[in-house]
Design goal:
The chain is of the alpha/beta class. It folds into two domains: 200 residues, Alpha/Beta hydrolase fold, catalytic domain (Rossmann fold); 80 residues, no CATH class. 40% of the residues lie in helices and 13% in strands. The chain contains 14 helices and eight strands. Strands 1-2-4-3-5-6-7-8 form an eight-stranded mixed β-sheet, sandwiched between helices. The radius of gyration is 23 Å and the shape is globular. The chain starts with a helix and ends in a 9-residue tail after the last helix. The N terminus is likely disordered.
């Protein structure tokens, strides 16, 4: 770093009079030093994860299942007992979330409809083992393996929120035959999906804070550098990670302020990243905004109903892009919520509405 700063000083002409040749040499030196610095950053791996249950790692306190590759997934159940359930949901939490997140549906409605729900810490979050090969496909297969380990039957319902919806898209692509239905709440969009109109994607991308734009660029184009980029402090990084994103919706802003004031945001972050922020937050960013192996807008119609809820005042997911995604897939039942932001779990009664939409009609929902 000292050598880079020295080169910068010389290139800016702080060392006295210089000719054009000297300036060119100084500029070349600056570029060379910058390249050397970036190469060192790329070769420097992120810290090793502190795996739950391993020596020196956090303790295991949650119920967990063991997957075929030896990893463990931590999970939390809610609703009616799984043995008595008519409908079974596997829930994928959002960015910075955990197995303790859910649809926030009332116990009364869950019992009325006979709904069992299981949420899990996605790989690298909370008490689920990291997966260095995490992908959209692996997220979907984790849902399937969890369902099988818990004996949820031939088919289950996949539900996701925010960034966790990449697992639902993955399930619609890789295991549609295992789905009885799917629901996504404020699903995050990858600006590089081929089906996104280039002009609209560029316009909405440019509305983000500069630090968010750069964080997503690095996630997409140079994922190996993301841990370094997010750790450096001389250029702006993600406001989403820092919980400082501008939220235009009043309820969203009030919810975040309240969670910050009572320490909930800090506790959630500590729990989510206890095995390492690279294996949770940063891995999420490279998977969500990296190069997908398929375009969600090119998916064939699945053999099950699919619902998508989106607020029209979402400060994290552009509603105009979401309208395009949903409009490109005639089999998606799109529900736009007026005057609503991104934090849909805070919308009174929405969890119950989701359950009633999925299971309220025997013709629309089959028990599995």
């Amino acid at each position: 770093m000292e050598r880079l700063l020295w080169a910068s000083t010389q290139a800016l002409g702080c060392g006295g009079k210089r000719g054009k040749g000297d300036e060119a040499a100084a500029s070349g030196l600056l570029v060379g030093q910058l390249g050397e610095w970036l190469c060192r950053a790329a070769l420097q791996p992120p810290p090793a994860p502190r795996v739950c249950g391993a020596p020196g790692g956090p303790p295991v306190t949650a119920r967990r299942v063991r997957l075929r590759d030896g990893r463990h997934l931590a999970y939390e159940e809610s609703g009616v007992p799984r043995e008595a359930a008519r409908y079974r949901i596997v829930f994928s939490h959002g960015f910075s979330g955990s197995r303790l997140d859910s649809l926030r549906a009332s116990q009364e409605v869950a019992e009325e409809l006979g709904v069992y729900m299981v949420a899990f810490d996605r790989a690298g979050y909370g008490e689920s083992d990291p997966n260095p090969h995490r992908s959209v496909r692996s997220a979907a297969l984790d849902m399937e393996e969890l369902a099988d380990a818990l004996g949820l039957g031939e088919k289950f319902y996949a539900v996701g929120v925010s960034l966790g919806c990449h697992a639902v898209w993955g399930a619609l692509r890789h295991i549609p035959h295992r789905l009885a239905g799917a629901a996504m709440l404020a699903p995050v969009i990858n600006y590089w999906w081929p089906g996104c109109p280039a002009d609209l994607a560029a316009e909405t991308y440019a509305r983000q804070a500069r630090g968010d734009q750069w964080a997503l660029r690095v996630s997409h184009h140079a994922p190996g550098l993301l841990h370094w980029w997010m750790d450096q402090r001389w250029l702006p990084t993600s406001t989403v990670v820092d919980n400082t994103t501008h939220l235009p919706n009043k309820r969203d802003a009030e919810v975040r302020a309240a969670l910050d004031a009572d320490g909930t945001l800090r506790r959630k972050r500590e729990a989510a990243t206890q095995q390492g922020i690279h294996e949770s937050y940063y891995r999420d960013m490279t998977v969500m905004f990296g190069k997908w192996e398929f375009d969600p807008m090119a998916l064939p119609e699945p053999p099950c109903p699919v619902h998508l809820w989106q607020g029209d005042e979402d400060g994290l997911v552009p509603v105009v892009l979401q309208r395009h995604v949903a409009g490109s897939l005639p089999w998606v039942n799109y529900h736009e919520l007026p005057g609503t932001g991104h934090f849909l779990s805070a919308v009174p009664g929405l969890g119950d509405t989701v359950l009633r939409t999925l299971f309220g009609s025997s013709a629309a929902a089959k028990p599995w």
